[in-house]
Amino acid sequence: MAVVEIFLASFLKVLLNRLTDDFLNFARQGGIDKKLKKWKDMLAAIGAVLHDAEEKQLTSEAVKLWLDDLKDLAYDVEDVLDEFSTEMIHRKVKEQQYGATMSKVRGFIPKIRFSFNFNSKIKLITDQLQDISERKDKLGLTYIGTISTSKEWLRPPSSCVLGGTPVVGRDVDKAKIVEFLSRDEPSTINFHVVAIVGMPGLGKTTLAQYIFNDSDDDVLKQFNLKVWVSVSDNFNIVRVTKQFLNQSRPNTVNGRNSVKFKMA
Q1: Which pTM does this prediction carry?
Q2: C-alpha count within 13 angstroms, C-beta hemisphere, residue 227
Q3: How far apart are CA 30 and CA 26, in angstroms?
Q4: What is the mean pLDDT of each run of 10 residues along the chain (264 residues)?
Q5: Which residues form the NB-ARC domain (predicted)?
């Protein structure tokens, strides 16, 4: 496998692993589950011809352009899924806050309504995926295999522990995120979500670790409790909630993050 093929194959598998049944069921509440299911089918079909495309791009400029367009589109898909995951977390946590009274108030929780801008993104990406898929057929790219969604392709869980290499050039980004975290805006729920999105390799996790481990920032000192939970590609609200609760208890030691928490 060439570098481009390995990157795209791995990236598409990450995207496919995010489109779980739980994810699609939640999308059904907003009326976009059929589009996301279509994304899943098209991404799997596109991924199956990557090996053939990698070989043919050496002699075909059209195939090379197809691969470039696919890479750009994959980044856009990831950004939309990140945005959707943020809304999903908001909704899940809000429902859990009602607890035992959920059955009484369920009817008062509004149905998910995505903004016009978000729905426009969904439609645009659906059209672009359809175009990529049709160009695949016109270019005569053949199916060599299919993308597996097995767990070995999932990204390993991240840790709050910052590596030994100094972080440079991220102070502006850090300041912006800290500003978001410190905003005191009226809300129906008692938490804020700040999403850090971008293409793979930009250092999103490193930036989050940099902020998490800063013990000198006056704003960050206001947070009495800091917990790091790796959400991973296969989002599971029950698992994430359990990990959060476990690490929130000083007497619980379960993994590197909780050890760091206990020692702090």
Answers
A1: 0.53
A2: 19
A3: 7
A4: 65 86 82 89 91 84 92 90 83 67 48 71 93 94 59 53 65 83 64 69 76 75 78 69 74 49 42
A5: 173-247
